[in-house]
């Protein structure tokens, strides 16, 4: 994985989809810190759904 900062200062990851016709946000997802509120919410909902 290669991480980089975009023009807005967000830390993003380069994926194998760089040359695809997908949207930039899909090709270069934002990397969130493990202790971020959004990450905690996603993990909690994932567990509630029994990892579905």
Total helical segments: 2
Q: What's the order of the H and E elements? A: EEHH
Which percent band covers the strand fraction?
Answer: 15-25%
Extract low-pLDDT stretches. none
Shape: extended
Main β-sheet description = 2 strands, antiparallel
Give the N-terminus to C-terminus distance in angstroms.
Answer: 26 Å
- Quaternary structure: single chain
Helix percent band: 25-40%
Q: What is the overall pLDDT average?
A: 93
Count of strand segments: 2
- What is the SS-derived class? alpha+beta
Strand order of the largest sheet: 1-2
Question: How is the secondary structure organized here?
Answer:
Blueprint lengths: L1 E4 L5 E4 L9 H4 L9 H12 L4
Describe the structure concisely.
By secondary structure, the chain is an alpha+beta fold. Helix content is 31%, strand content 15%. A hairpin with a 5-residue loop joins strand 1 and strand 2.
Please explain how this structure is put together.
The protein is an alpha+beta fold. Helix content is 31%, strand content 15%. It contains two helices and two strands; from the N terminus they run ββαα. The protein has a two-stranded antiparallel ribbon with strand order 1-2. A hairpin with a 5-residue loop joins strand 1 and strand 2. The longest helix has 12 residues. It is extended and about 35 Å long. The chain starts with a strand and ends with a helix. The relative contact order is 0.15.
